[in-house]
Write a structure and sequence with these properties.
This protein is α+β, with helices and mostly antiparallel strands. It contains 10 helices and 5 strands, in the order ααβββαααααββααα. Strand 4 and strand 5 form a beta hairpin. The protein starts with a helix and ends in a 6-residue tail after the last helix. It binds iron/sulfur cluster (2 copies). One iron/sulfur cluster binds next to helix 9.
């Protein structure tokens, strides 16, 4: 979000709040639940931006709670100056030992690498797959609202009746809402639910990651799939798109006589 809100015209509202924000990151040893795919999305062990980075040293039991607390910034040090803790001589080794307790694979994994997946998602229309999921989508926008990397908004002008005063306000918007891509003339660039779904997937795995040089703009948190009333999960959509492309490639590679 720092990249997004610093891009082009800087968003001072965001940046001022960000300036006042300190981040305490937690390094999980077990996936949150069956929806998580953070390792596949390259956000497991993600340290960038953290002031304090906490790694549990055991998979917790009632009896054992021990953590490695790494302080990456002066703010992190100030926040913890009253903490009573043992100094640590070998944080790298401790962290390595802690990570060795993780299950493998860690959460769900895509059927192709993230790099390959990004190219596939960008280059393939895969309309039948998006339409398949769109059939049970309410276009409620919940998947956008719960997503930590959805940031789209719209502005609204409200004037007093005498025209002497007014307010311009900003509201969160959601690309899964039917009116998201409707413009002043009334034309809607993405009137179909399947087109909106495809746009959302491409934003997360192709458009924004390429624009901001990130591996992915999806953290793999699994929130959208967890919250969707009809169980639509971006992880499944992405895997289905990749699978359909693999199938096409296999068919093309098949010798003519076998077909
Ligand atoms: S939460 Fe589910 S039903 Fe609602 S817009 Fe997203 S995919 Fe569609
Ligand atoms: S899993 Fe869903 S909610 Fe989480 S970052 Fe990816 S798109 Fe957003």
């Amino acid at each position: 979000m720092d990249s997004v809100f610093s891009d082009g015209v800087k968003d001072m509202h965001y940046l001022q709040r960000r300036e006042q924000t300190r981040i305490i990151a937690f390094n999980c040893l077990t996936p949150c639940d069956d929806h998580c795919f953070c390792e596949a999305a390259h956000s497991l062990d993600f340290e960038a931006g953290a002031d304090i980075f906490i790694t549990p040293l055991f998979i917790h039991t009632e009896a054992e709670h021990q953590y490695l607390v790494e302080l990456f910034t002066i703010d992190g040090e100030q926040l913890t100056h009253t903490l009573i803790a043992d100094p640590c001589d070998n944080p790298i080794e401790l962290k390595k030992q802690a990570k060795s307790l993780r299950p493998e694979p860690f959460g769900r994994q895509f059927i192709t690498s993230l790099e390959q997946l990004s190219e596939t998602i960008h280059s393939q229309d895969a309309n039948d797959i998006y339409e398949h999921y769109a059939q049970r989508c309410f276009s409620c926008g919940t998947c956008n609202l719960v997503c930590p990397t959805c940031y789209c908004f719209e502005t609204q002008d409200d004037f007093s009746l005498d025209g002497n005063s007014g307010e311009k306000t900003r509201h969160w918007d959601a690309c899964m809402n039917p009116g998201f891509a409707q413009v002043a003339s009334g034309h809607n660039f993405r009137a179909e639910s399947a087109a909106r779904q495809r746009h959302r997937v491409r934003r997360k795995f192709a458009y924004l990651s390429q624009r901001f040089s990130e591996d992915s703009f999806c953290t793999g948190c699994g929130r959208c799939g967890r919250q969707c009333t009809t169980g639509i999960d971006i992880f499944d959509i992405v895997n289905d798109v990749c699978q359909s492309i693999n199938t096409v490639h296999q068919e093309q590679a098949q010798p003519e006589a076998e077909k």
